[in-house]
Amino acid sequence: MHRVIGTDPAELPVSPAEARAMLRNMVRARRFDERALALQRRGWMSGYPPFRGQEGSQIGAAHALAEDDWLFPTYRTNAMQIARGIPMSDILLFRRGHPEFDSGHDVPNFPQAIPIATQIPHATGAAMAADYRGDDAAVCCYFGDGATSEGDFHEGLNFAGVFESPVVFFCENNHWAISMPRGRQTASETIAVKAEAYGFEGVRVDGNDPLAVYETTSEALATARTDEPVLVESLTYRHGPHTTSDDPDRYRDDVDLPEWRTRDPVDRFAEFLRERGVIDGAFVDEARGAADEELGEAVDRAEAVPEPDPEELFAPVYDGMPPRLEAQYEELAAHLDARE
Fold it and tell me: pLDDT tens across 16-27, in order?
């Protein structure tokens, strides 16, 4: 397993400016996660999937992507999306029932996959298309360890291996598939080893070490562009619940995992950079203040967008609304009228 923090490297694998940018994005992501959770708890949005503890994994991978590489995210990939330039207000609006790309941004980012693993065959198909067209772009497909138990995982990786598609399958192994620990869902020694069945390489990385994730993902993307797919298993830990409707205290007792995996990745990386003189003692607080200001503006933008009319749920589905859908819309309209 690859790691940088804790190995006392002679020099950083990135420039000091890039390392500071990584930590700044980790702080931005952490503050977003905390604010989104607080907003959900007061009824501002219906549900939210926290990602506290996984910032190092996602930010390291995001910084490895080229500007024109495609990201296939899930509902928990908020840190990667924020680091790539997706406006925070877009993610918040999506959680309030609005279209996902409200700002009209041009970041190469597919819509978040809510069903587990459905984005994996999509990512493989997009990578095959890029290969056919001769594009330089690669595809990064993000998913959790629970997705490796789905049939879509097999189908997507099998096709990618056969067609040598330029795709990196980035599995963020946070130990929990909702309430199911990794050891209860697969007998494989690792998730990375599953790649061997599809004819390409699988690698493991300390997911709470953004520098190691950056290096591993960069190498995987280079391999994908020129040779074959790669499966990356990024080992991290989900500190909070699966979603705001989950109570992890019902199934999570003391977990027998090493300290590096369960430690706060923001604190760990900040300590590492301070010891090397890359940041000073005020850096994290200043980054937190800037993130709070950005978040305040994002919330204001989201709240300024009018609530959509219920008809917007039905109108874009067909060119002309069929009788079955029209009947459903009329039923909803009658229900809403009765509430007034």
Answer: 999 999 999 999
Catalytic residue flag (residue 98): no
pTM: 0.93
For the question of residue 41 being annotated catalytic, the response is no
242 carries an active-site annotation: yes
User: How many Cβ atoms sit within 10 Å of the Cβ of residue 20?
Assistant: 16
Top-level class of domain 16-308: alpha beta
Name the residue among 295, 280, 242 with its Cα closest to residue 27: 295
Among 105, 132, 184, 251, the active-site one is 251
User: How many beta carbons lie within 10 A of that of residue 17, not counting itself?
Assistant: 9
Indicate which residue of 98, 242, 261, 268 is catalytic.
Answer: 242
DSSP state of 53: T
Catalytic member of 76, 98, 175, 238: 238
| pLDDT tens figures, 33-63 | 999 999 999 999 989 999 999 999 999 999 9
Q: Which amino acid is at 112?
A: Q
DSSP string, 66-117: -TT-EEE-BTT-HHHHHHHT--HHHHHHHHTTS-TTTT-----BPPPB-STT
Structure tokens at 328: 């459903």
CA 301 to chain centre: 23
